[in-house]
Amino acid sequence: MTATPSAITGIDAPAITRWLAERTEITAPLQFKLIAGGRSNMTFMVTDSAGRRFVLRRPPMGKLLPSAHDMAREFRLMSSLAGTPVPVPRMVGLCQDPAVNERDFYVMHFLEGLVVRDVEIGRSLSEDTRRRMSHELIDTLCALHRVDIDAVGLGNLAKREGYIERQLKRWSGQWEQSKTRELPLIDRVRDALAARMPTPSPATIAHGDYRLSNCMMDPSGPVAGVLDWELCTLGEPMADLGGLLGYWHDPANPREGGDALTTGLPGFLSQEEMAGLYAEKMKVELAAVDYYRAFAQWRLACIGEGVYARYLGGQQGEQGEAIDLDAYARNIPHRVEGAARLLGLIA
């Protein structure tokens, strides 16, 4: 049963309805429903009087970390990529007036498709579809990294140099601001990453959180839309590949879950096959791939601690799905240990 608009945390239904009715094709009255599965920004289904479906994104409740949850940035990125080979949802509007809903939000058209966010959904797919999804994910990542930054108006999105240095500084700072426990290994890994930076690749659009469960998939295999652009910037394309592999099945890891558990099903390619496809299509070497896999695991640990802290603080709303917070918290040091092993810091 859909909750009444007034009962939904994070939504001022009358104010949002007025704002949308005055500026867009969306017609009142509207129904709002929180979409389960978000771990950072809050995502809502919006249904208008004509039965058309849209999606509204806004930051989580409560105090936010500096530079996080930039709705205007997400909106700009997807708007700029419209018409490129990168599939993105069609944008409707961006609101930056705090009088409407306290925080910035944007609205986009709902995409039809499948988000493969758990192993049960993965099991519903044929082996051939899983294999095609693997190939399509790499094809779409390559399409993103081939986008001409200046031609789509994103040349001033961020600095093009010093990506890893900036990322290490940003996530170290956010770890310090959100940490719920001491974890000395996080600093050791950061220092090793800083000391061993490989020669950077030419800057591209770097999605920052590219993975199976952040893509809307056509049930037959293609990527219908790339979602969750919150962490996107200009920078190192190999970091996107490392991040994708960080969520992908690793047969040596007995404690994995989420995307990794799903991508362990027959049909999905291995990490080595995924990396090899990317290298072949982009004509790049993979000598530094373990560095970027380690960077991804360290970064995901820092991000995960922030998400965990927000859940403890009640900032994510009622998600409507069971979340094992203890298991989520345990996965954070596990990621740091994985990064340390890839760098040879621990056995």
Structural notes for this entry:
- With about 350 residues, the protein is of the alpha+beta class.
- It has 2 domains: about 5-110, Phosphorylase Kinase, domain 1; about 120-340, Aminoglycoside 3'-phosphotransferase, Chain: A, domain 2, CATH 3.90.1200.
- It contains 12 helices and 9 strands.
- The protein has a 5-stranded antiparallel β-sheet, sandwiched between helices.
- The longest helix has 24 residues, at about 290-310.
- It starts with 12 loop residues before the first helix and ends in a 5-residue tail after the last helix.
Task: Return the CATH architecture of the largest domain.
Answer: Alpha-Beta Complex
Strand tally: 9
The CATH homologous superfamily of the largest domain is called Aminoglycoside phosphotransferase (APH), C-terminal lobe
Regions with pLDDT < 50 over 5+ consecutive residues? 1-6
Q: Taking all residues together, what is the mean pLDDT?
A: 91
- What sequence of helices (H) and strands (E) makes up the elements? HEEEHEHEHHHHEEEEHHHHH
Fold-level CATH name of the largest domain: Aminoglycoside 3'-phosphotransferase, Chain: A, domain 2
**Count of helical segments?**
12
Percentage of residues in DSSP E strands: 5-15%
Radius of gyration: 20 Å
Question: How are the SSEs ordered, and which strands pair?
Answer:
Elements: H1 13-23, E1 31-34, E2 42-47, E3 53-58, H2 71-81, E4 91-95, H3 98-101, E5 105-109, H4 119-123, H5 127-146, H6 163-178, H7 185-195, E6 204-206, E7 215-217, E8 223-226, E9 233-235, H8 237-246, H9 259-262, H10 271-282, H11 289-312, H12 325-342
Helix pairs in contact: 5-10, 6-7, 6-11, 7-11, 7-12, 8-11, 11-12
